[in-house]
Amino acid sequence: MSDIQSAKPDAPLLAVENLKVGFGPRGHVNEVVRGSSFAVEAGRCLAIVGESGSGKTVTARTLVGLTGERSHVSADLMELNGQSLLGLSGRRWRALRGAEIGFVLQDALVSLDPLRKVGKEIAEPLRIHDWKGDRKQKVIELLTEAGVPEPELRARQLPHELSGGLRQRALIASAIALDPPLLIADEPTTALDVTVQAQILALLEATKERGRGLILISHDLAVVSRLADDVAVMNQGEIVEQGPAEQILYSPQHAYTRALLDAIPSEHSKGTRLAPRVAGAYIPAGNPRVPNLVASRAPIITAENLVKAYRGPDGKSRTAVDHVSLEIRPGETLGIVGESGSGKTTTARIVLALVDPDSGNVTLRGKPWTTLKEKDRRQRRRRVSVVYQDPLSSFDPRWTVRRIVDDAIDEADYKGKEARLGRVRELLGHVGIDEGLLERRPLQLSGGQRQRVAIARALAPQPELIVCDEPVSALDVSIQAQVLDLLADLQSELNIAYLFISHDLGVIHHVSDRVMVMKDGKVVETGTAEDIFHAPKDEYTRQLFAALPRLERAQPVAKAVVA
Amino acid sequence: MATAIDPTVGGLPLPGGGAPARGGVVARVRGLRPVVLLAFVFVALLLIAAIAPSLLTKGDPLQVNLGHSLQAPSLEFPFGTDQSGRSVYTRVIYGARESILIGLGATAVGLGIAALLGVAAGIGGKWVDNGINRLLEVLFSFPILLFALFLVAIFGSGVSTQILAVGIASSPGYARMIRAQVLQVKGADYVIASRALGHPPSRTLFKNILPNAFRPLVVLATLGVGQSIVWASALSFLGLGVAPPAPEWGAMLDAGKDYIQTAWWLELFPGAAIVATTLAASCIGRYLQRRIEGETY
């Protein structure tokens, strides 16, 4: 069905020149892609990287004709196999999509019809393009090819019955059903655990090796380094730099690319700043922080043998946290790393005394904590604060920044309106939030600003420990870098301890003094960050590191990972 | 390098385009859509009619003049006269007070009962919730007319009976909404965040849960005022409301229905008043909804 062979041998599979895409009514067009040019050859992978709002997703959608009615697309050239993609009718696009261009969307759960069985979904492109043959048989083949175990069973299930990794594989199976010469994958591994991510990358790698062209849209440079032959870096609608992956990732020319690479927390960046200093931001008085491992100081939190089980929808009890013990001392950072469902967040909630453990107990400064009644805990809650993954949902939507921070200030310490406002200003100054934002509501803030306000709120009660539950997972890498730097600055200034939860090994390594690796509710390994990262003892920890895409070693993905 | 990555705005366009502009009253009125403006003007007139009807008409709504009975609209009697020669215009103006009183009163009664039941069901735990839900189901299935008859039998007919009947009948709908809102807000992250700060539950309830749970009700209540007026008019029409000579829109419709073939104005003008009031209330309700949502969403 594809006509790769008929194309001129030297012409690229896809050629795009001076692509412009804008939205809005005529005369008020907001241009989000401003003249980008790129090409993809068969059997090669072009990665388009950039932060949110850079125009990379719009670029991807333009190539499958899904930019919507209010969009304006123009280009000097946009050709697939020598055939122009400009000004195509809806019918023509439908004929191309699936057959000539496969498209893998970002979020498999929302991209799959919740009421349609997975098998039907995958058979859809076959049906639309009048594929002749046994569709059922083909679906099973595709699922097997995509590395889905028990394909017969999976085909009969609904999307929500599948795990995130399986869903993403089903989506890819659907996109490659007709073996299109060009496959576009928009953030295919975002929100997936590292081990699952490695499997998806291997699957895409296999597609590439079959001689198909691949466009990978990603914000994650480490992921890109595993797969891409060429990289185009987008910023504010423009491709600022493009070239072979090696060159872009290891000797970038453009300042934006360099800043993007510097912002990634990794092994060599520990103890250093990730983002360039922002003018006017809070600068701590002390020296760069030295790892804090003074064992003699009394711990803030001691948790012993925590167990917590939840009853699942099937009535079976599932142990979320299984005999976890931990200790956090003043001024240190304990990192908990693990894949989704490993019990990290439940552990944090027990430490925060928001969830009571089934057995085991937590003491705060040597005094009972989880065993207390809620009423008696209340006065001591101020010693432990929390920063959530999604700051937006953790703010009352009606409240302004000023009120959000004010609400967390202890009334006993700051009496009177003036004193409290002064304190709000001081706290916002600490986190680098401008005074002009005092009367803004959370929705009027950017993601990075929201997380800064969340940190200001966490600082307000003057806590000894802040529990950070995936605080940077929803942020772009440059914003993540600023937030991580901010947390480090605050720690060296105020000697706060952190319980830092993340699925991102690079982030955990960057921030932690000690690391705890969790799997299925159990602690599989615990030790100093150095030991865990350089001499992991446990098999699972080693696997986790093997699956982690790293910029340091850009090697092809090991085939063995696909089970 | 510092310019390449903006430190404050993470590459995202700011929703709402920055700080909301707060112009003066004149600017705000000018920004209104004509329909909304019309609705506000109409409501203003209604309020004048309710508070000081003599500003809008010099006549007496009860003054009988059999010599002028059933006259078609003219310059002297813009809305015509009824079978007793009373000016329909004057009666519609004087009727505004009762209608608005019933509309506001019934909505207040309905919301008041609903707030108590809904919040109790939302925060009271399983048993309270179950009990209140059964009560609401009973209220839902109770025919409003039967209920009004029952109240009339106890208290006699009149404005307060109408308010009570319409208010109680509309409360289960509100109560269900409030309960659902409270349950939703109760589980929100910001409520957990408040708990993690060590705030007592009463503070979280009054500062976070209730304001957020009641926010969508502002709009609903505005729409409810119009709906209550329609219901109250229906009760008056059936003779379960205000006693005949008193000017009330529903009662006027009832009194005029026997002459509908010859004197259309007896039905048209009170009917138009009811429809216009309800429309204006809905229009303002939707305007408020957009404003509230525009501020935080």
Walkthrough of the structure:
The complex is a heterodimer of chains A (563) and B (297). Chain A is of the alpha/beta class and 563 residues long. Chain A is built from 20 helices and 21 strands. In chain A, strand 12 and strand 13 (317-328) form a beta hairpin. In chain A, helix 7 (164-175) runs parallel beside helix 8 and helix 14 (401-407) packs parallel to helix 16 (447-459). The longest helix of chain A is centred in the last third of the chain and has 18 residues, at 477-494. The two termini of chain A are 30 Å apart. In chain A, 50% of the residues are buried. Chain B has 297 residues and is mainly α. Chain B has a single domain (34-61, 76-292), classed as MetI-like fold. Helix content of chain B is 68%, strand content 0%. Chain B is flat. Chain B starts with 24 loop residues before the first helix and ends with a helix. Mean pLDDT of chain B is 80; it is low at 1-22.
What do the pLDDT scores of chain B average to?
Answer: 80
Number of helices of chain A: 20
Described by strand count, sense and barrel closure, the largest sheet of chain B is:
none
Distance between the termini of chain A: 30 Å
Structural class of chain B: mainly alpha
Q: For the terminal residues of chain B, how far apart are their CA atoms?
A: 34 Å
The CATH class name of chain B reads Mainly Alpha
Strand order of the largest sheet of chain A: 7-8-9-3-10-11
Give the % helix of chain B: 55-70%
Rg calculated over all Cα atoms of chain A: 25 Å
Structural class of chain A comes to alpha/beta
Over all CA atoms, what is the radius of gyration of chain B? 24 Å
The level of helicity of chain A is 25-40%
